[in-house]
Amino acid sequence: MLDVIIVTPSHQYPLGGSLPLPRRRELIAWASRTGVVVVEDDFDSELRYTGSPLPTLAALDDPMNGVVVLLGTFSRTIAPDYPPDIYSRPPG
Q: Which of 29, 36, 72, 84 is deepest in the core (most CB within 10 A)?
């Protein structure tokens, strides 16, 4: 049984593609139905060559009964030697 998945929806390595908004919603719906926790590694969602940034999975998730844990860091763009990490999870 799958308990946790780790995704980088804003920047897939090595080609750099982003998970489209409808697929982000499908992923959250699937995780909610199956009870899987989604760990979103959002390390560079603001850095885009075209268009505006897409919302994080955490922003699309239910704030009270959510399934997404958001991880992020500024270290790759601001200070590679000092990793000021960000961690956000649904309340409760």
A: 72
* Letter string b/e over residues 19-46, b meaning 16 or more CB atoms within 10 A of that residue's CB: beeeebeebbeebbeeeebbebbbbbbe
Contact 55, 45 (CB under 8 A): no
Express each pLDDT in 46-77 by its tens digit. Answer: 666 666 778 889 999 998 889 998 876 654 55
- How buried is residue 82: exposed, middle or buried, by Cβ count under 10 Å (0-12/13-18/19+)? exposed
Instruction: State whether residue 57 is helix, strand or coil.
Output: helix
